[in-house]
Amino acid sequence: AMAECKAEIDVVLGPGAPHINKIRELVGSLPYNFTVHTDVRDMAAMMAATDLVIGAAGTSSWERCCLGVPSIAIVTADNQQDFASSLRANGAAEVFDGRAEISAEVLGRKIRDLSNDVGRLNAMACAASKICDGLGTERVFSAMTGIDA
């Protein structure tokens, strides 16, 4: 028997995701508190309210850093590898290679370990927030105009 999990797990998919029905069926069969979202209007608020995000190591990684959210980043394309390595080196994320087979057991163990280590999650959040402060637009504006934003 599986131990009961008290975590609230949000699964976020784009409305055109190809396997929505299969994912809904799968999470409905598991003994966890899942909510599947397909039309999130305020992703930043949802991410900011979470303890840990598991997601691809693409552009959404910048958003997670800006919000100071620790993550498990999964490399899904070759062009994500360098940034993912930087996230890991800076302590902002744990990284898995999604181009290779990811063991559910290894990923599950990592999630459990992080969930039980608030100090590590806080350190990852601080490291993430140092990577991207979200003020790049203002810097570009100031550089182009000479006006402080």
* Number of DSSP E strands: 5
Number of helices: 7
**Ends: how far apart?**
57 Å
Task: Please state the average pLDDT score.
Answer: 90
Outline the biggest β-sheet. 3 strands, parallel
> Major sheet: order of its strands?
3-4-5
Helix fraction? 40-55%
Oligomer category: single chain
Percent range for β-strand residues: 15-25%
Uncertain residue segments: none
Shape: globular
Write the element-wise H/E pattern from the N-terminal end onward: EHEHEHEHEHHH
Task: Provide a compact summary of the structure.
The chain has 149 residues and is α/β, with parallel strands linked by helices. 45% of the residues lie in helices and 16% in strands.
